Amino acid sequence: MNALQGAPLLALRDVRKSFGTGVDRKVVLDGVDLDVAEGACVVVVGSSGSGKSTLLRVVDLLEEVDDGQVLLDGEDVADPWVDADAVRARLAMVFQQYNLFPHLRVLDNVTLAPRVVHKVPRAEAEAAALEMLERVGLADKARAYPDQLSGGQQQRAAIARALVNGPELLLLDEVTSALDPELVGEVLDLLLSLRSEGVAGRPTTMLVATHEMGFAREVADEVVFLHAGRVHERGTPDQVLRDPRQERTREFLRRLR
Ligand code: ADP
Ligand code: MG
């Protein structure tokens, strides 16, 4: 269950990714190494444009890497021969924009992937979805449409949708950035409870990109500071956020204040 016992659940090894060609080529991930042990929460921080979303998208196989390895349980999923759907079934990603389907009720948003992708019978999928909606505090909104929910409720529904298939790793990309400030707390509280209580008694393994330093301090086992596609500093939240060693990290933290 920790990094000392066997391989981490997720390991990035010298991951490189650029966009564009010739003079327009832009290196976005410049040799990133990163480990997420099972049950752990790793939080990636860094300025806008530092490569956080690309990092998560590479793990979710939404972007191909140019070089390096993305090891899930020791298997290199960046290999083009890998069954991408099988890999994605083990992961779940939640985005800044909650991306609920507006024409589907909350319950149907949550059951869609289990029913269509995993061929779970409707009754079974709905029972699991209701349980997950209960877990995120939205049991009473199952029959509502997304536009009848607040932004915080929509994001919690998106998290329920991400969790319903029982992913091994939850990828969260700035999930509170689009929310009105007064709605951020309810989503962060949910994520904190996913860390402390988990789902079905299992702590949720998470790789998180966020601007919420308070959240990073509370949930992260490790904070990784990304700048221009490189990891400049990593360590416990206390070390990186309170007592950073690198000038770049200090500068980043100063600008947040
Ligand atoms: P962050 O999430 O930290 O803000 P991103 O990973 O979104 O950073 O972006 C890092 C850099 O990569 C930015 O300069 C962005 O413009 C560039 N980028 C991201 N996706 C693409 C793409 N599909 N095509 C070209 N450039 C991209
Ligand atoms: Mg981003």
From TrEMBL:
User: How is this protein situated with respect to the membrane?
Assistant: Peripheral membrane protein
Lineage, top-rank taxon, reads Bacteria
Q: Which UniProt keywords apply?
A: Amino-acid transport, ATP-binding, Cell membrane, Membrane, Nucleotide-binding, Transport
Presence of keyword ATP-binding: yes
Alphabetized GO MF terms: ATP binding
InterPro entries linked: AAA+_ATPase, ABC_ATPase_HisP-typ, ABC_transporter-like_ATP-bd, ABC_transporter-like_CS, MetN_ABC_transporter-like, P-loop_NTPase
Where do the ABC transporter domain residues begin and end? 10-253
* Pfam families named in the record: ABC_tran
Is Transport among this UniProt entry's keywords? yes
Subcellular location(s): the record lists: Cell membrane
Family the UniProt entry places it in: Belongs to the ABC transporter superfamily.
Q: What is this protein called?
A: Amino acid ABC transporter ATP-binding protein
